[in-house]
Amino acid sequence: MGVLSGETEPSEPTNVSTEQVPGVTNGTLSNASALVEANRNAVTADGAILQINESSAEMDIDARLVIGAGFATHRLSASGTVGDTQSTAIDQWSNETTQFVRTSAGGQSNYRVLDGSEERLTSLSAIEGFLSVGEFTVANQTAGDGLIVLTADSASDADTSMPAAERFDGRLVVTETGQIHSLSVTLTRGGEQVSYEYRLRQAGVESVSKPDWVANVPSGATVQAQFAVDVENDSYLSLTHTEGDVVPRTATVRVDSNGTTGTVSLNSSLTAGATRYLYFDGSTQDLRISTERPQQDTISPVTSPASVQITTDGGVVLHSSSMGWGSESVSAGSTGSSHEPTRSPSTD
C-alpha cells in the first residue's frame, strides 16, 4: 500500500467559507446527497483509509476500508454480528474487474469471486442515511486546519424514510470541498439506541496490495449462479437454476428438514433454466435428486422449516437459504403445484 500523504488531515486555507461546502446552505446541511457524493469523489480520487463502526440492538459491525487512488483497488475488512447470528468476518479485495471475497464464521471460511465492474461502496453510501436524520448546522467551534464543524441535537422533520428519532446527537467535521473527516451519531428510535462513527484515518493511498489469501481461492469460487427453491405438494423441493454459469456435476446439495440432514451430488451439470427435485426416500430417509417429480407414495415429506445449501467440490457455497410454509397451503393431490414459502435471505 503506497501512501501519498502521511497527514490524516491535510492543511486547508484558514479563511474557509461554510457556504462552499457541498450540501450546506445558510449554515445548514440541506442536501446530504451532495455532501456524500463530494466525499465519495474525494476518497476515490486520492485514496483513503476509513474506519466505520455501527452498533444497535440488531447489529454490531466494525469495518476498515482502504481505497487506492483512482479507485483502482480497494479492500474492506469487517467483523461483527447481525441479529442472532454468530460472529462473521469478511475480507474483500477488489480491482477494476474482479472482487475476491472471503467470509469466515464458526472456524470455517468461504470464498467467492465476483464481477467487479459494478462497484458498490455501500459503506460510504450508508453515511447519507445518518446525515439525513439530523438537523446539522454550522457550529461556533473549529477543528483546526480549516476544517468545518457541524452539529445536530435534534432529528430532522424532512426525513420520512423511516420513523422519527426521539433523540439525536451528531457531530460532523468536513473540509470546504466536502471531504468528511469524521461523523459521529447517537440516536434513539423506538426506544432503541443506535450509534454510528465514520472516521478518516489517512488521506492519500496510492494502491492497495492484494492479500495473501487471494492465492488460496479455489477455482469453483468463480461460478456465478442464481437459484430458486420452492416446496411442492408440501412434500418435496424444486431447485431451479434461474441464471448464471453452469454448475458442475460434482457440486452437492444439502437439505435440512424432518430433523434430518441429507446430502446428495448433482450427478449431472445444472444449466440455467434446468430444475431438479429433492426429496427424502420413504424407506431409507436418504436424500434423493431427480429430473422428474417423485411419486407421492415413495417419499417422506419434507416439513417446515427446511434449508438448502449448494456447495462446489472445492467447498465454495453457491447458495444457502431457509424457508417455511403452512401445511394447509397445498393439497397432497395437486401434483406439480407449488406455493410461495416464507424465505430467509440467501447467499446467492
In short:
With 348 residues, this protein is mainly beta. It has helices at 32-46, 122-133; strands spanning 2-3, 24-25, 28-29, 48-55, 59-67, 74-82, 88-94, 98-105, 108-115, 137-142, 148-152, 167-174, 180-189, 192-203, 205-207, 225-232, 236-244, 252-257, 260-265, 275-281, 287-290, 299-300, 306-311, 317-324, 338-339, 342-343.
- Enter the CATH topology name of the largest domain: outer membrane lipoprotein receptor (LolB), chain A
- Work out the helicity level: under 10%
Q: What are the segments in which pLDDT stays under 50 over at least 5 consecutive residues?
A: 1-13, 327-345
What is the number of strand segments?
26
> From the alpha-carbon coordinates, what is the Rg to the nearest angstrom?
25 Å
Structural class, by secondary structure, is: mainly beta
Biased composition (Low complexity): 320-338
Region (Disordered): 1-27, 317-348
Biased composition (Polar residues): 11-27
Task: Name some characteristics of this structure.
348 residues, mainly beta, outer membrane lipoprotein receptor (LolB), chain A, Immunoglobulin-like, 2 domains, eleven-stranded antiparallel beta sheet, six-stranded antiparallel beta sheet, 2 helices, 26 strands, 8% helix, elongated, disordered N terminus
Task: Describe the model.
Helix 1 packs antiparallel against helix 2. The chain folds into two domains: 19-202, outer membrane lipoprotein receptor (LolB), chain A (Clam); 223-341, Immunoglobulin-like (Sandwich). The chain has helices at 32-46, 122-133, and strands at 2-3, 24-25, 28-29, 48-55, 59-67, 74-82, 88-94, 98-105, 108-115, 137-142, 148-152, 167-174, 180-189, 192-203, 205-207, 225-232, 236-244, 252-257, 260-265, 275-281, 287-290, 299-300, 306-311, 317-324, 338-339, 342-343. It is elongated. It is built from two helices and 26 strands. The strands form five sheets. It has an eleven-stranded antiparallel beta sheet, with helices on one face. Strands 16, 17, 20, 21, 22 and 25 form a six-stranded antiparallel beta sheet that branches. With 348 residues, it is mainly beta. Helices cover 8% and strands 46% of the residues.
